[in-house]
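Changelog excerpt

This revision adds worked examples to the README so contributors can see how folded entries look when concatenated. The first example is reproduced verbatim below.
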Amino acid sequence: MTLAPGVRRRPLSLTLRVALLLSAVAVATFLAVGAYLYQTLASQMAERDDIELIGKVAQIRRILAELPSPQAIARNPRPLTDTLFGHDDFMLSVRGADGAPLLRTSLTSRPLPQVARVPPRQALTLADVHDWTPAMGTGRMVSAVGLVGADGQPVQITLARERSDRLRIMRNYAVDLFIALCVGATLAALLGYAIVRHSMRRLRSVIGKANDINTSRLNTRLSVGDAPVELREMGQAFNAMLDRLEDGVQRLSGFAADLAHDLRTPVNTLMMQTQVALSRPRTVQEYQTLLASNSEEYERLARMIENTLFLARVDNAQLGLRRESVDLSAELQRIHNYFEFLADDVGVRLTVASPPLQVDVDPVLLQRAVGNLVSNAIRHTPAGGEVGLSARATAGGVELAVSNTGPGIAAEHLTHIFDRYYRADPARSDHAHSAGLGLSIVRAIMELHRGKIWVDSVPGASTVFYLSFEKTQNS
């Protein structure tokens, strides 16, 4: 049966795969053990047959020594033939010293080869047994010289044996081994399947718990303390993934709530002002004032949407860096020149101090990050204060600092100031210019550059934001 084009074969279950692998291992093991046992048995049986063959020749020698003459062999062969009783596969040939036949128990269609005869008074060993080729299989034979009578007349003894009995036994043994192999492989497959299925109960339990997890039950965790070692690491990785998902969902929920809250303020302001303006006829100047006020709210909404889209692109890795080697001191001077008039308007002194430094960054994103910090510093520095831009080379790269002599940040707010829509002092925040995303954007830009950002603040004295970049060149 063939599958239709485009239809993929359903993969086997893990339980069945492991069971089949166990069956394959069992078959390979049975084959190896069976082959070893078969060869060992065949070798032992062959050695036993050779020992029996040598024993028969030694017995025949003793009988010949008790006969009066070689002619007595032909007259009464029974003492010699009785030694072969029950062994139809033996062939005995006794010839006189001149080669004349004295006794032959059976005939073979294939002649026996001529081999060296063992001298009469020399004991036979396994090395004296030779191969010959009967009609079936491989035979073994011994040729020796025996002495007859008191005067020791020599006769030629040839004793050969076919291996038919042993071959039949080995064939039966091979059949038994094959049957045992099939039965053993079947049992191994069935038992392996049952054992693996039983062992998979824990995995099925994990799957059941995973199916119960949804966005409203992200606090559920897998129990890994009593899990097998093989599943413990997977359970820990799964729990870690749930931790990340839960944190992401909570952050997304908080982000959506904060975004809705901040969008509601300008929208409500626009609606209220518009409704008030439409409640009765207005002068041209009043309409112009209303439009100017609405324009400020629209600008605030535009900045909020732009910043939110920027953070969304960063989170989804859709914002690519365009790194290039830039002169950091020149970039800081350019930012200083841009914000200098804004600082003068509010009575804040803006300074810059940086030696010539080269850093590998995206210049547009660098300007945005530092610009956010400078704008934030100017907004929170009272008249007569100072905002400073500085940079220095460090062992690990380049460190940039934006400091101001404003009121500082309380210790309980330092760990949250980089969160989206977070304001350390909502009552004092300038909602017209800030939506709580400036520092979040700075942190996102630093994460894109694989840099670091941190803050040191002394309430009532100063605040310093540090940006650390990897340095590529120091001039």
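The second example, added in the same revision:
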Amino acid sequence: MAVQSVTEGMDLDRSFGFLVHDVARLFGRRFDRNGCRLGLTRAQCRTLSYLARNEGINQAGLADLLEIRPMTLVRQIDRMEESGWIERRPDPADRRARRLFLTNKARPILGEIWDIATETREEAFGDLSATQAECLIDLLQRVHRRLAEREPAEVLPVAAVAGRQ
């Protein structure tokens, strides 16, 4: 009896999960190449963009939005604060906490980040008509909404569940 390959019958080029992940990876790599003139990393661009939409958020909240570990963000925020992109201000409700704000240096760069994103998207969509590109975005938004609304409830560790009984 012949042993079947685990991937036999699977076309990874047609697999939604593999394809969407690979497109995101390649898009990010292209953004990095296009954006190197900014002197910011992609992670820093994401941080500035999310912070622009959520000014005054605390570090834990921003880490949650960015889906990265808070300790990873702290080091990044430290570097960005030293470079003059972000400032920490005291939280009026909690003297131990800090709120994050963009600096005047950061505000003009947001337009440049958007320009790089637009340039990268135009390169990625180069083989698509305007209608196809719009349709792709619409379809991805529908998939995104569907997955976001069906986010499973947080799974509690066994010890926490046992402690409730």
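Reviewer comment on example two: The two ends are 51 Å apart (CA to CA). The helical segments are 16-35, 42-53, 59-66, 70-82, 106-124, 130-149, 158-164.
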